[in-house]
Amino acid sequence: MKLEHLAIVLVAFYLQCCVLGRDSSEELYSVESSSSEEELENEAVLEEDPHFDLLIFTQRWPITACYEWREKSASNVCGLPSPRNIWTIHGIWPTKLNTIGPSFCNKTAIFNVTELAPIEPQLEQFWTNVEKNKPYDSLWRHEWLKHGTCAAAVLTQLNSENKYFGQGLSWLQQHSMADVLNEGSVTPGANYTLANIHEVLTNRFQKNVAIECFYDRETKQQFINEIRVCFNKDLELADCDGILFEEVALNSPTLGKIISNCNVNKPIFYPATVPPSRFDKTHLSPFDLHRKFLDEYKSRKAKESRTMKLLVNIYKLIQLLKWTTI
């Protein structure tokens, strides 16, 4: 009876490991785009020291941002700027070197969208909330409470909502990635190497910037997503060396340091239109649907086979233990 109990424990342990392994692998590749309203309120209680070294001005390609958003849920809807061939602002992030933050530097701060009335039409176009399911001003609210409060605590040039968001619009006008990349012959609808994009950016800015990709687990393809340009506290261009990024910086023999989470050995796609998400079944041909069904069936049968083999081996072990104890 004790041996039978042992077998049950071993089987339960195996099944638990399978479930936990699956969940952890899914979490490994999940990408956080912005906090929910509830998370934002919880985080905002944690007031931090506002001092920082650099400001990271982040622009994103809304086509990729939309694709990433739609990949998370079948119910997610995108709001894209007009025209759609412009890069939009994600935020201005005060940053200490070799760490993340500071953030939420004033726990008593309140976001008042009416203060942005003079520049609201420009913000709607150039600081677009791609995540249309959420309140239209949720991105601005998040950026101000998390990042703007820290900038405002240190720099008089950014000590109000109007100044903070206005500075972002000013920087976009001067350093629009749509213009920068186009001048370097990097245009939507094609693949490029990380070295291609890095060279265009360093030639323009004469500073090291950060390049962020979105990796699609379904297609195993990487998309250009964000480009981050750094400024010092005098609001002058600065190298982004030393910022904490998702992956380690790569060193190119010809181009020097490349700060990026993109795979240097794979092409980077710069999409011209939003690709179909994994929830869009209509874009699959009958052949693709059949192949997907077969792949899922084979995967399921392989898992069942491995489980059965394990159970058989456990049974054999129990019989062997019984035999040796007779």
UniProtKB/TrEMBL annotation:
<keyword id="KW-0256">Endoplasmic reticulum</keyword>
<feature type="active site">
    <location>
        <position position="90"/>
    </location>
</feature>
<dbReference type="InterPro" id="IPR033697">
    <property type="entry name" value="Ribonuclease_T2_eukaryotic"/>
</dbReference>
<dbReference type="GO" id="GO:0005788">
    <property type="term" value="C:endoplasmic reticulum lumen"/>
</dbReference>
<protein>
    <submittedName>
        <fullName>Ribonuclease Oy</fullName>
    </submittedName>
</protein>
<dbReference type="GO" id="GO:0006401">
    <property type="term" value="P:RNA catabolic process"/>
</dbReference>
<keyword id="KW-0458">Lysosome</keyword>
<keyword id="KW-0378">Hydrolase</keyword>
<feature type="signal peptide">
    <location>
        <begin position="1"/>
        <end position="21"/>
    </location>
</feature>
<dbReference type="GO" id="GO:0033897">
    <property type="term" value="F:ribonuclease T2 activity"/>
</dbReference>
<comment type="similarity">
    <text>Belongs to the RNase T2 family.</text>
</comment>
<keyword id="KW-0255">Endonuclease</keyword>
<keyword id="KW-1015">Disulfide bond</keyword>
<keyword id="KW-0964">Secreted</keyword>
<dbReference type="GO" id="GO:0016787">
    <property type="term" value="F:hydrolase activity"/>
</dbReference>
<keyword id="KW-0325">Glycoprotein</keyword>
<feature type="active site">
    <location>
        <position position="143"/>
    </location>
</feature>
<keyword id="KW-0456">Lyase</keyword>
<feature type="active site">
    <location>
        <position position="147"/>
    </location>
</feature>
<dbReference type="GO" id="GO:0005764">
    <property type="term" value="C:lysosome"/>
</dbReference>
<keyword id="KW-0732">Signal</keyword>
<dbReference type="InterPro" id="IPR001568">
    <property type="entry name" value="RNase_T2-like"/>
</dbReference>
<dbReference type="InterPro" id="IPR036430">
    <property type="entry name" value="RNase_T2-like_sf"/>
</dbReference>
<dbReference type="InterPro" id="IPR033130">
    <property type="entry name" value="RNase_T2_His_AS_2"/>
</dbReference>
<dbReference type="Pfam" id="PF00445">
    <property type="entry name" value="Ribonuclease_T2"/>
</dbReference>
<keyword id="KW-0540">Nuclease</keyword>
<dbReference type="GO" id="GO:0003723">
    <property type="term" value="F:RNA binding"/>
</dbReference>
<dbReference type="GO" id="GO:0005576">
    <property type="term" value="C:extracellular region"/>
</dbReference>
